[in-house]
Amino acid sequence: MTLLRRYGTLLALALIIAVFAVASPGAFGSMANLVNITQQMSLLAIVAIGATLVMVVGEFDLSVSAVVSFAGIAAVSLFGAGFSIASVFALVLVTALAMGTVSGLLVARFAVPSFIATLAFGTIIGGLTFWISDGATLFSGIPPAFRDLGRGALFGLPVPTLWLIGTAAIVWLLLDATEFGRRLYAIGGNREAARLVGLPVRRDMVIAFALSAGLAALAGLLLAARLGSAHPTGGGGYLLSAYAAVFLGMTAFREGEPSVPGTLVGAAIIAVVSNGLTILGVPSFLQDLMTGAIILAAVLVRQFGRAGD
Amino acid sequence: MRASLYALAFAGLVATASAASAVDIAVLTPYQSSVATNQMIKVFEDKARAAGWNATVVDTRGDMGQLASRIEDVTAAKVGAIVLVSVDPKQIQDQVSAAAAAGIPVVTIDGATAPGVALNVTSDNFELGTKLSDFLFDKLGHKGNIVKFYYSAHPGVHQRELALDAALKKNPDIKVIAEHYMVVPGPIDDARKTTEDLLKSQGDQIDAVWAAWDEPAIGAELAIEADKPDSKIIIAGIDGNPQAVELIKSCSHIKGTVSQDFDAMAGLAADGLTKILAGQKPEKAELYAPAKLITPETLGVTCP
């Protein structure tokens, strides 16, 4: 029971993988497919890790999907204007950090509820994206070297997986091994107490929002590289999935706290379920029913474990 | 949990068992909620059943990243063929190329030609846009103000917009006084709300609504019927959507739709796929289904 309580969500992931592997040993259980799942979950996980930072301080960032779309469109537009890959990366990421800073200021400095501030600012970013792209999917002018940043493999691992490993390691270290990370958890635990002991609450919250937007932009750049195109609503699917991953992750490892390992498990559950059900030939309406049921079941496994306390 | 897992395992076993007896065809689209896309999928499913294929439909609700992942999944599952509906394969070129390299034929319906695509069946969207524009401009006497509802992200729908641009150049007295990029999914409601707003701000100036497909036309009709039922605004769209045809029949403000023969498109795709699975090549890499204009007159209705 202790094992179930402590690692219930992780066990649920292992069970889901085991069931799919039994049902489809050739296709799902192949090493190539399992490696491919890490690629498929990578962009969602990067967005979700950014959302984790904001959730650690007890807030939400609903603009992440708009930033994902913006980053792809902005990058392809800049390539069309003759910018190099390095300058496009720098310009897009700095712009996204600035966008996150604005969201953070609205929430931390002007006390606008994060739901409203980021929803409104995300809508503005969405409008900007449509303005830049004229609503069209952008293809042309993408350098082949940029595409290589979102596809192919290095050291036997897909490139997007390597981006995820790097991002997860850095943010995990930032949250768990630095004073900044501990401050974020302190702010999320009790903001007023954190302020009274002299922590720079506003500044740290703004940084959390900026990093969230920066990671969403990184995912947007990698999505454009992976697809070789940028769609003005290309990030639309990431918002709910990213928060589902964070919430699933909150049931793993730590007592109800967002964490990078937890978010990775959450993103993995979402990716494995989608991949496995598609390989088994389950139609999409049944996939929706089963995905919801499996996510609920994964959380319930953990809750049953707790009931044993 | 245990029950869910049993259910999951059962679903998997059923799918695996059925896969053993028929060719698996993966039908993938980001736009299944669109009436036209849905119709093509339904007709293709019927054709697949008749051919003894096991067709599975996956919809990613406008999410291209998900679509790329799901194509990778069905490629890993070694399906017999992949059918993409209402999507430009260039938007997911790597995955299409990987499927083709794995020996899986890729057929697109209402898509486009691209490397790795064995057959694309579509309508000539530029011609559809030209027919719509010419019809509307003739109705206006080549003079008036129009509202444009468009969606450039879909390659076929974008071609219709380019056809409008070409027609506008030939008709300098036709002015676009408002244009709106459609929200998809949910174009009917989006068009209804936008038209309500436009009727309030520029209602007296609008002579016609040019809708890149029928769902925005239906939304515009709902708004006009509610707010200005006696206005002389003319609406026209593309697709031959059954709801739009009914509205034309009932003498609403929708006066025309350029009908795409979706049944024929899905049928041509199924025929082409049959040849491909038999090891033959389709006659051409791209086939066009015919289009026709539907008006009250062609439906035998006399409107006041």
Overall description:
The complex is a heterodimer of chains A (309) and B (304). Chain A has 309 residues and is mainly alpha-helical. Chain A is 75% helix and 1% strand. Chain A has one domain (2-307): ABC transporter involved in vitamin B12 uptake, BtuC. Chain A has a two-stranded antiparallel sheet with strand order 1-2. In chain A, β1 (153-154) and β2 (157-158) form a beta hairpin. In chain A, α2 runs parallel beside α7 (159-176), α2 runs antiparallel to α10 (201-227) and α7 crosses α8 (179-189). The mean pLDDT of chain A is 89. Chain B is an alpha/beta fold. Chain B has 2 domains: 2-122 and 262-289, Rossmann fold, CATH 3.40.50; 125-260, 3-Layer(aba) Sandwich (Rossmann fold), CATH 3.40.50. Helix content of chain B is 47%, strand content 22%. Chain B contains 10 helices and 12 strands. Chain B has helices at residues 2-21, 35-51, 64-76, 93-101, 125-139, 155-170, 187-202, 214-227, 242-249, 262-277, and strands at residues 24-29, 54-59, 81-85, 106-109, 117-122, 144-150, 174-181, 208-211, 234-239, 254-260, 286-288, 291-294. In chain B, the strands form 2 sheets. In chain B, strands 2-1-3-4-5-11 form a 6-stranded parallel β-sheet, sandwiched between helices. Chain B has a 6-stranded mixed β-sheet with strand order 7-6-8-9-10-12, sandwiched between helices. The interface between A and B is large, with 54 and 50 residues. Chain A: Keywords: Cell inner membrane, Cell membrane, Membrane, Transmembrane, Transmembrane helix, Transport.
CATH topology of the largest domain in chain B: Rossmann fold
Give the strand content of chain A: under 5%
Fraction in helix of chain A = over 70%
Mean pLDDT score of chain A: 89
Domains of chain B, number: 2
Spatial strand arrangement across the major sheet of chain A = 1-2
Number of helices of chain A: 13
CATH top level of chain A? Mainly Alpha
**Which runs of chain A of at least 5 residues are low in confidence (pLDDT < 50)?**
none
Shape of chain A: globular
Total strand segments of chain A:
2
* Poorly predicted runs of chain B: 1-6, 8-20
Portion in helices of chain B = 40-55%
How many strand segments of chain B? 12
Order of helices and strands of chain A: HHHHHHEEHHHHHHH
**Secondary-structure arrangement, i.e. CATH architecture of chain A:** Orthogonal Bundle
